[in-house]
């Protein structure tokens, strides 16, 4: 198995011992993205909707760097500190994805890195 690192300056730099994504064959495993603005490495704002939009923009940048786009994602995992934001996530996600939507999990967690309100990771499948 060959694996290669996917990196772009259009998404936040890794803040730990991981890469933005790893590609093996036509499959790309995307690390979790939180609502950091790549240029400043600070949160876009404290507003949940703005944080969610920033996370999807960050994911889109990594997908693009891997040679695909958000609509090539086959699995998305959404981590929320407040599951009460579930409906908002659905509304925002619909702005970034076309049908058929990817498989998805959405769970509430006690905390996220740097105090983020949302984190999303997933799997991208590229055309052969």
UniProtKB/TrEMBL annotation:
For this protein, the record's Pfam families field holds: Ribonuc_L-PSP
Q: Which CDD domains match?
A: YjgF_YER057c_UK114_family (cd00448)
| Superkingdom of origin | Bacteria
* SUPFAM superfamilies reported for this sequence: YjgF-like (SSF55298)
In its UniProt record, a GO molecular function of this protein is: deaminase activity
* Xref: Gene3D superfamilies: RutC-like (3.30.1330.40)
Q: Name one GO cellular component term.
A: cytosol
Q: Which family does the record assign?
A: Belongs to the RutC family.
**Name the record gives this protein:** RidA family protein
- The source organism is Opacimonas viscosa
């Amino acid at each position: 198995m060959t694996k290669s690192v996917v990196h772009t300056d259009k998404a936040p730099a890794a803040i730990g011992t991981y890469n933005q994504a790893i590609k093996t064959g036509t499959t790309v495993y995307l690390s979790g993205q939180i609502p950091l603005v790549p240029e400043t490495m600070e949160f876009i704002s404290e507003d949940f909707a703005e944080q969610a939009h920033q996370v999807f923009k960050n994911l889109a940048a990594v997908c693009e760097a891997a040679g695909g786009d958000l609509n090539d994602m086959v699995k998305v995992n959404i981590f929320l500190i407040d599951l009460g934001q579930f409906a908002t996530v659905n509304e925002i996600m619909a702005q970034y994805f076309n049908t058929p939507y990817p498989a998805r999990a959405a769970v509430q967690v006690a905390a996220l890195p740097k105090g983020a309100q949302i984190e999303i990771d997933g799997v991208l499948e590229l055309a052969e």
